[in-house]
Give the backbone structure.
Amino acid sequence: MELTQEQKGKIGETAVMLELLKKGFNVININNSYPNYKNADLICMNANNGKSVMIQVKTGTTQNILTGFTSDVKGSIPKLEEKIIGPWVFVYMPDDKMSNMEFYILTREEVIELISSSNKWYATEYYRELKKKYPVGVYVDWLEGGLSKATKLHPEYKSTLRQTSKGNWWKITKLLD
């Protein structure tokens, strides 16, 4: 039986929760109380100091992980900075076995810059004339930053990340120290 996108999303959220629980944090999945809560999926808390952070999780099974945003034909995404309220974890799940999950952790600022920059490039510089709004995605290779293999797919775009974001849980844990 093939998993639905909703099931894959729940698996990604649960996998991120487990990683944070292993690091000693308390985690609540907001979607259990408010289905498809806007702007965040998880609340991660440090019980020792009371600090918390809201985290968005995006799970994808293809090289292009959708962000949930829609762009106009000129590359503008309304209220992008308002809607990104904390760090994001992109979960790349290349198959339904879930044994090869990869976690890419970005700060709020990195997410805004990457989505904004790549979307502007896609809309205005990628040899096309767009005629309608489109869903915004981020390629897994772009999440590798300076180590990017994205030249195969889009050699013209250079990721705004200087280095890989793979496994960089410290971007979340530092907010909770």
